[in-house]
Specification:
Three copies of one chain form a homotrimer.
Chain A lengths: L1 H7 L1 H4 L1 H30 L16 H4 L6 H28 L5 H23 L6 H24 L3
Helix pairs in contact in A: 3-5, 3-6, 5-6, 5-7, 6-7
Chain lengths: ~160, ~160, ~160
């Protein structure tokens, strides 16, 4: 048991894995924040999608008018979906990359640029910034994940 | 090779990791179930989105009328997307949490509450239960993931 | 430190894990490709969703007409969402499966069928092929993930 526990903590003792864990937790928390922003806009804009969510506004027509789409709500939701589409590959490929034995400095460079790009992407989407602000921040994050995937395939390749 | 294989199975021998594996498989299977429920409602409500899916109903207008949205189908799809938004962070952060050396009892508490909350959330969404049933079950799952992220960042922090 | 580094690369030296890493990178890259295909159709069909994306087409009404949905764009987006719904469970359950000590040949069979089924699914969705082409490729990938989940739960079960 003792040896087992010592081994179970070994991965988290590895510096590259610790960096991966830190940045993965940060970008996943950032993605989770989108749920709160959606809820904030739904409540302040009074724009809901489920009838049971408008029950507190009364019955019948008085509540029904709040079952509508709002541009701000839809914008946050698109940002949230874009996070899912891009952060899921980062988390999956990033784990394999962290286990493929990269240099700590190279790994940190990848993780930092990805996290920075996704945070910028959220600001670019929500403010919104004029293009190509959002497009570029998306492309930077995408390229980092692609670069990590290349290293993973070069190291692990077994088809 | 022998030693290598022995080591490769070590993670799954660790009790916290076994608990993580069990609950992750359960919540991912629950999420996968949403696809089957969507298919069930699409077929029974005859509400499809792709023209090729209605070809068996005949050609032209007789098939075209089944290209429509249905409230029950849309409800399951919203539940499915909500699962993606919440179960993805659980799976990613939960893995790091399981490797950060928590007590087995504390880890089990986190995993059990999360899985229970997400199963309740699905029932609350599909029946549907009056609010705040769905809202509360969502918040409980969200808080569990947040708590695990805090432990991960405290243990691994390397920016 | 030396021993720590040696251990950190051990997982990637395991053949089943290498196979998992290879196929996970492939299916996640395939999923990422959907973003590029969406962008391609948005630009060639001139169908955008964010006002700031149409600013280069001029101001006012001349740009506003490009804020519209296009059947080809929507089709790729549905394929992308279907990837998220199915590849996320594969990546999560596949990792646990790879760590549960399966035979290399059995593991390769699972990974190869899943990757093949998802690539077929994308072609079936985008061409589109007549049903049940897309339905069958979806069901095959779904069944592979289910089979891996069964092995994970049998090996790890700790509730």
């Amino acid at each position: 048991r003792r040896e087992e526990m010592a081994k179970s903590t070994q991965l988290i003792d590895n510096e590259v894995f610790r960096a991966y864990a830190t940045y993965t937790a940060i970008v996943l928390l950032k993605m989770m924040l989108m749920s709160l922003i959606t809820a904030y806009f739904r409540i302040t804009r009074k724009a809901f999608v489920n009838p049971e969510d408008t029950a507190s506004f009364g019955k019948g027509e008085s509540a029904k008018k709040y079952l509508r789409t709002d541009p701000d709500v839809e914008r946050v939701r698109r940002g949230h979906l874009n996070d899912l589409e891009n952060i899921v590959p980062f988390v999956g490929i990033g784990l394999l990359y962290a286990l493929s034995g990269p240099e700590l400095s190279t790994a940190l460079l990848h993780f930092r640029i990805f996290a920075g790009a996704r945070i910028l992407h959220t600001f670019a989407y929500l403010i919104p910034l004029p293009q190509p602000g959002r497009g570029l921040s998306w492309a930077v994050g995408y390229s980092v994940t692609f670069s990590m995937a290349y290293k993973v395939l070069k190291t692990a390749w077994l088809l």
